[in-house]
Amino acid sequence: MSHMRIELSVVMPCYNEAEGLAQAIRRVHAVCKGLFLTHEILIIDDGSTDGSWAIVEDAAQSIPEVRGLRFSRNFGHEAASSAGLRHARGIQVLILDADLQDPPELLAELRAKMAEGYDVVYGVRRSRAGESWLKLVSAKLFYRVFNLLTDNPIPEDTGDFRLMTRRAVDAFVAMPESVVFLRGMISWIGFPQVGIYYDRKPRETGRSKYNFRKLLGLCIEAITGFSVRPLRIAFVMSMALFLGALGLTAVILIGWLSGRGSSDIALVMMVISFIGGVQTLVMGVIGEYLGKLFVESKGRPLYLIRDTIDKAALDAESR
Q1: Is beta strand 8-14 parallel, antiparallel or unpaired with respect to 39-45?
Q2: Residues 233-278: pLDDT tens digits?
Q3: What is the pLDDT of residues 170-208, one digit of tens each?
Q4: In three state form, how does the secondary structure of the chain look?
Q5: Which intervals hold domain Glycosyltransferase 2-like (predicted)?
Q6: Three-state SS string across 289-307, please?
Q7: How far apart are CA 179 and CA 168, in angstroms?
């Protein structure tokens, strides 16, 4: 099955989504059939432990368009989405989370917008029902901090939900990074890109796998993976503190030479503590970048595949 024969690939990463996965597959399949598209539904099981893979196996028996990749363990959502893009065969590729908070029924609107000449059409969340205030605030803060600290901003209030042309997918796949931030990398490749607004639905089943710790980790990975601006800020802060320390030293020395002495011990201690704190921050920023270099230098694969399902390809080979 060449990708030139498949009009659409739907990439669906999942992790412990057994409760609603079968429904999600049926719903996506119905949307694609309703648009009369030759398609494939590529499920990437990111090391689920709840029986999600068994549901993919069952679905493939009745829906030949279903394909599956099963990771050897949990490698993370970004790795799963990347694997889906690397294995998708379609002329167009839709990235869609298995929880279906992003409705597949928007596919017709996405394709209509792409027909105007865009290579990437992404969803912009006008509202986000069913999410906690902490997640809403942290998400807004993430986009603003990321765009402030990077040279390649990403559209605010977006996720991975997007439709891509084969040209855009091939450009993404050509990137050799072992640490992936999908939204940033797709923004970086350029090509015409546009967003459409929609209302994000609450989860019908299961729970979100993203907590504050994971969101914070994603933010750090994203910023350090796409910009050296934090290093420049650290350098400027270090220079400012160095000059400030020289000035304070001069003030103390002048006071001592003039016989006034220095009774501002508390001020001196405060300045020393502040300088020590900033130095620790600067070392932490540098450490993050060194850590990234260490990870990249090892050259480990982004993920490992344990099992695959491709019933349509097997049927074609047996003919």
Answers
A1: parallel
A2: 666 666 666 666 666 666 666 666 666 555 556 566 666 666 666 6
A3: 999 888 777 777 887 888 888 999 988 888 776 665 565
A4: CCHHHCCEEEEEEECCCHHHHHHHHHHHHHHHHHCCCCEEEEEEECCCCCCHHHHHHHHHHHCCCEEEEEECCCCCHHHHHHHHHHHCCCCEEEECCCCCCCCHHHHHHHHHHHCCCCCEEEEEEEEECCCCHHHHHHHHHHHHHHHHHCCCCCCCCEEEEEEEEHHHHHHHHCCCCCCCCHHHHHHHCCCCEEEEEEEECCCCCCCCCCCHHHHHHHHHHHHHHHCCHHHHHHHHHHHHHHHHHHHHHHHHHHHHHCCCCCCCHHHHHHHHHHHHHHHHHHHHHHHHHHHHHHHHHHCCCCCCEEEEEEHHHHHHHHC
A5: 9-170
A6: HHHHHHHHHHCCCCCCEEE
A7: 19
- CB-CB contact of 43 with 14 (8 Å): yes
Task: List the domain boundaries for the chain.
Answer: 3-211+302-318, 229-298
**253 exposure class (CB count in 10 Å sphere: 0-12, 13-18, 19+):** exposed
Q: Residue count of the chain, please give it.
A: 319
Strands ordered across the beta sheet of 158-165 = 193-200, 120-128, 158-165, 92-95, 8-14, 39-45, 66-71, 305-310
Yes or no: say if 12 and 84 are a contact pair by the CB < 8 Å rule: yes
For residue 9, the one-letter residue type is: S
Alpha-carbon dihedral angle through residues 19, 21, 26, 32, given to the nearest 10 degrees: 150
